[in-house]
Amino acid sequence: MKMWKNITLDFPGTDLRYISDLFSTLDVASIMIKDKLKEPDSNWVDDPDNPNPLSGDTHVIVLMIQENQDVDQLIYEIQMIMNLDNAPDYVEEIFEDKDWVTYTQSQFKEIFISDSLRIVPPWESNSEFSGQSLIIQPGSGFGTGTHPTTQLCLRWLENNLKANNTVLDYGCGSGVLSIAAKILGAGFVEGVEIDSNAILNAEQNNELNNLIIPYHHPDSFESNEKYDIVIANILADILNRLAPTLAPFIGHKLVLSGILENQAK
């Protein structure tokens, strides 16, 4: 089996976007900027309209190279490119190539939202559970259930959704919240999503859960409905911009998530 190396470099106080551009001339298989914190602990978000800095204080750069590639030569080239007096410190990790699709799928396990609600990938949907199961195929749509904001929304729905409530899931991603609403007893449910690939993922997840929930691109979405619940799990800046769009649809409750603690007002 083929082997690879990850070379992790730490450059505190630097702009890693700039450094990654410098490194584009290196003979490497990939360049990755990686958060130093695990996802649940990190406050960093990727907002394309208002890009956050990728700083060496919060992130590291990881270079993937062939196993037989000369690491000393690579580090020397980095030293020259960055005009450093000394060779930078690094951490070297050797790992085996694998079927990355199978490996990625193996990382998705059942997620227990509560004692009566869980999310499972299709390959674990037959495992024993006495409550309700949401079957989600990991894909391009945000919302596999691992993110804290998704779990917050799911717990809110489980505790507050009334039978036959109408629900609009705005920024639906994988469809996880709209599917959960329907499984938990909602009436009419629909979703809106700007990413066409995410809509395809949501439609696939509908089929897995034997549901038919309509999903729309915002450019083609028209509704005079006032929904009992409007739910949006999106970045705070986007939520602010969407406020005039969402307001006409709010019939009773507006549920917002994706807001960092330091963004709350």
From TrEMBL:
Q: Which Pfam families match?
A: PrmA
Q: Name one GO cellular component term.
A: cytosol
Question: InterPro entries this protein is in?
Answer: Ribosomal_L11_MeTrfase_PrmA, Ribosomal_PrmA_MeTrfase, SAM-dependent_MTases_sf
Q: Which Gene3D superfamilies match?
A: Vaccinia Virus protein VP39
MF (Gene Ontology)? protein-lysine N-methyltransferase activity
Provide the alphabetized UniProt keywords: Cytoplasm, Methyltransferase, S-adenosyl-L-methionine, Transferase
GO biological process, alphabetically ordered: methylation
Which family does the UniProt entry place this protein in? Belongs to the methyltransferase superfamily. PrmA family.
**What is this protein's record name?**
Ribosomal protein L11 methyltransferase
